[in-house]
Amino acid sequence: MTEQPNTVRNKVGKCLLHNWTEERLVADLDTEETKTQIQRHGHRGILTIDQESKLENVTTFKAAYVPPKSPGVRLRGVRSELLEKHVAQMISEQIHAERTPPTPKTEFCSTTQTDFCVEGFVPLTPETTQVYDYKTDQAVTFWSENYQQIQGVTAVQTLKAPFRKSALFSTPISERLDEIDLPPDN
Hints:
By secondary structure, this protein is mainly alpha-helical. The chain has helices at 21-25, 35-41, 60-64, 78-99, 111-115, 142-145, 173-176. The chain contains seven helices and no strands.
């Protein structure tokens, strides 16, 4: 195959791989319209000769297929239809019952009822061994038990109240030397 000479010019646009066969066939139709009209609307007169004809809205499938027509009379009796509906309803209820088991009875019992309200339990208040005054006694906490390991706390004057106010850090040394008992340094 030899390559065809470039004597026939491509009038509309570039063709892929110099395939000008289609353009040569429609060259007679290109004389009336401009290049942009041809690219936008295509060539007129290729598919139909009548330019004013409208497209059909019926596809070939719709034209070839005709739905079957019913005979217009009842093919089954009323009793057989009702029997069939009843059997279908029974089967669906049976399958539904098999697939969804009944929900178990819920026990509305709180944690307090199960753990703290045991039958036969008698609460007893323990007897006190010492007399405590909650208004004046120092509270027992983690920090009051471990005050020796805390850094940055002033020296403890009394062991019963380690966190009371102390002005020892700002007291001049000359006044502290007059004291009989010096506080222990931690």
